[in-house]
Every structure is written in structure tokens, then in C-alpha cells.
């Protein structure tokens, strides 16, 4: 059996695939593979491991009907045309659960970094601008006892909420399509309408999928409904906020700060104004990037691939 991988995955997983007599071809270029190249690369393969934002769209799927399985190196699957995959009966699997703690850590890191203007302070030193001690500069906002608003309280959102509660005794409010009874019971999370969530949150953290409903949900109109000292955190997908509106909202002090692990587009341009603002922190989509989590993700990928190649039901299907 043959599997194409469009990037790097944990070595232990490659070894397990090889032990199962799977022959591997990997994309090793320093740029993202294009859809045409992907179609060509998967032409004579049995399985495909998709690393990064490969477009698994109708063009790709229609040209790749022979694939027995597609295993995503992510929990998010906004890059997949699920309806077409379903119609063509191509099993597609993801990596749920194992990256919740690491991604919530990244959201927490961004919240804290923004609240104390940490990235700006670091740049002040590296830019040679730290010339004297100035107590009135780089003043942050404290988090103790503040209200955390979670937009999309699933596995990752719950991890983030628990950390904020434990560290800062933050009150947790949330907005979801459906109620999260576990969070209501365990951490007294309070369900609010979307507008109430915006009005009450001191920190608003996004942990929802990118869908037609959430695309550019955070626009100027929405930022205007938030507190002027609120911090906006997005570790989900860059497409969920409108970047120009976010820049404007920060410039005009409609909101106080923002922490982003995801941008639109990715990679972000090095001259993007967000990178030069005081109460902003941006990371290059490292939400789940730890040794332990990458290994765990690769473990689920191997399970999806082996099951799919054997014609069995895959254990972590997206549909
Ligand atoms: C992945 C992610 O590492 O799981 C997701 O949805 O965004 C990240 O954890 C990234 O998609 C690269 O594969």
C-alpha cells in the first residue's frame, strides 16, 4: 500500500506506517503544495495524510476517488469539502481531543502576553528603544476576577476556561450552538446570547470551527458591541475575524487588545500593522505544536490510515 504525506509528521508515526509495509512519499519543499501538485502526487496512492491547509476541494476529491482514506493532521476540517467527500464515499479522519490542552495553553499564553504587552516589551528591547525606566509605560490590564467569554465552548474552549478559572478565578460565560452541560456543572459556566457574550466579556476567546456561519463573524459591528477594555483571542481560524476591521478596532480603541495564533492569510506579512501594536501578540499558528501533542496527533493519523487501508471504518471520522 502507498501513502502520500504533504508535510512532516512525528517520526514514530512514519516508523509505524513502514512497519505495516506502507510505502511513503513525502512533500519536502519549503512551500505549500498546490492543488494541481497534490492531485498529481496522489494519483497512484492508496492513502493521503494532509498536513497543513491543503485544499481538499471538489477538484481534488473528484480526481482522487481511488483514495481509500484521507487522514488530516488537524482537528479542524474547514479545508475539506465534506459534502463531496461524503458523496464519493472517501473516508476522511481528523485528530480530535489530543490537541485540546496544547491549544488552550496557546490561548492562555496569548491572553497573558496581551494583558501585559509582553511582545511589545520584547520588541522595545530588540529594537534598541529601551533607553530609560519609565513606570507609566507598557501598563497592562490584570486578569484576576475578570470575565472570560468563550465563543465555542467545546473541548478546547473548556480547557481554556478551566485554566482561566484556576489561575485567575475568572467568571466563565459562553455562547454555543448548543448548551455545554459539563461546563455549566463543572465550572459554573453561564450560557449567554451572542450579544450578551460580547457585552460582558473582559477577554473573549474564540474556539469554534470556521464555517459559513462563523466566517468573518468578528467584524467592526461586533467589535463595537464589546467592552472598550476587552481583549480578543483567536486560536481557531483566521477567517473567523475580519482582519482589517480588527486593525481598525484596535487603532480606534474600540477594543483594548488582541492575541492571535491564526491569521488570514497565513503566513502573515511581516509588515502587518498588528505586529507593531502595543497590546497585540501574534504567533505563527503554533496552537498544537508541542512534541507530545504532535506525537499524539500522528498516533490518531496512523489509526485512521491503517483502518482506511484495510477497508475498515476509520476511528476518527469527520462525517
Ligand atoms: C494543526 C490546527 O497543527 O488542528 C488544527 O485544526 O489548526 C493545528 O493543530 C495545523 O492545522 C497543521 O496541521
Overall description:
By secondary structure, the protein is an alpha/beta fold. It has two domains: 2-97 and 290-309, 3-Layer(aba) Sandwich (Rossmann fold); 100-282, Rossmann fold (3-Layer(aba) Sandwich). Helix content is 36%, strand content 14%. It contains twelve helices and twelve strands. It has a seven-stranded parallel sheet with strand order 8-7-6-9-10-11-12, with helices on both faces. A five-stranded parallel sheet has the order 2-1-3-4-5, with helices on one face. Helix 8 links the parallel strand 7 (171-175) and strand 8. The protein is globular and about 65 Å long. The two termini are 24 Å apart. The protein binds 2-keto-D-gluconic acid.
Number of strands: 12
Q: Note the beta-strand portion.
A: 5-15%
**CATH class membership of the largest domain:** Alpha Beta
Mean pLDDT: 97
Spell out which ligands are present: 2-keto-D-gluconic acid
User: How are the strands ordered across the major sheet?
Assistant: 8-7-6-9-10-11-12
* Overall CATH architecture of the largest domain: 3-Layer(aba) Sandwich
Oligomer: single chain
**Element-by-element helix/strand order:** EHEHEHEHEHHEHEHEHEHEHEEH
EC number: 1.1.1.79, 1.1.1.81
Protein name: Glyoxylate/hydroxypyruvate reductase B
Catalytic activity: glycolate + NADP(+) = glyoxylate + NADPH + H(+); (R)-glycerate + NAD(+) = 3-hydroxypyruvate + NADH + H(+); (R)-glycerate + NADP(+) = 3-hydroxypyruvate + NADPH + H(+)
Enzyme class: oxidoreductase
Amino acid at each position: 500500500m502507498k501513502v502520500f504525506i504533504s508535510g512532516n509528521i512525528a517520526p514514530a508515526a512514519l516508523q509505524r506506517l513502514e512497519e505495516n509495509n506502507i510505502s511513503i512519499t513525502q512533500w519536502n519543499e519549503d512551500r505549500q503544495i498546490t492543488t494541481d501538485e497534490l492531485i498529481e502526487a496522489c494519483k497512484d496512492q492508496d492513502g493521503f495524510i494532509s498536513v497543513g491547509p491543503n485544499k481538499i476541494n471538489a477538484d481534488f476529491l473528484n480526481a482522487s476517488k481511488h483514495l481509500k482514506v484521507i487522514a488530516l493532521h488537524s482537528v479542524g476540517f474547514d479545508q475539506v469539502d465534506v459534502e463531496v467527500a461524503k458523496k464519493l464515499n472517501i473516508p476522511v479522519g481528523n485528530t480530535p481531543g489530543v490537541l485540546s490542552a496544547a491549544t488552550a495553553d496557546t490561548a492562555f499564553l496569548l491572553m497573558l502576553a496581551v494583558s501585559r504587552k509582553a511582545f511589545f516589551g520584547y520588541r522595545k528591547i530588540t529594537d534598541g528603544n529601551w533607553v530609560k525606566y519609565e513606570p507609566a509605560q507598557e501598563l497592562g490590564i490584570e486578569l484576576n476576577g475578570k470575565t472570560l467569554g468563550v465563543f465555542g465552548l467545546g473541548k478546547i474552549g473548556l480547557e481554556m476556561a478551566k485554566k482561566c478559572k484556576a489561575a485567575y478565578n475568572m467568571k466563565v460565560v459562553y455562547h454555543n450552538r448548543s448548551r455545554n452541560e459539563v461546563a455549566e456543572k463543572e465550572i459554573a459556566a453561564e450560557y449567554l446570547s451572542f450579544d450578551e457574550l460580547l457585552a460582558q466579556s473582559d477577554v473573549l476567546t474564540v474556539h469554534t470551527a470556521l464555517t459559513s456561519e462563523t466566517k468573518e463573524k468578528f467584524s467592526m459591528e461586533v467589535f463595537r458591541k464589546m467592552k472598550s477594555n476587552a481583549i480578543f483571542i483567536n486560536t481557531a481560524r483566521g477567517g473567523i475575524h475580519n482582519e482589517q476591521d480588527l486593525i481598525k478596532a484596535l487603532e480606534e480603541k474600540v477594543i483594548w487588545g488582541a492575541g492571535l495564533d491564526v491569521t488570514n492569510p497565513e503566513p502573515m506579512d511581516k509588515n502587518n500593522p498588528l505586529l507593531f501594536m502595543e497590546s497585540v501578540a501574534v504567533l505563527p499558528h503554533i496552537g498544537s505544536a508541542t512534541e507530545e501533542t504532535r506525537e499524539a496527533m500522528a498516533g490518531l493519523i496512523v489509526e485512521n490510515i491503517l483502518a482506511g487501508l484495510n477497508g475498515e471504518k476509520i476511528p476518527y471520522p469527520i462525517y
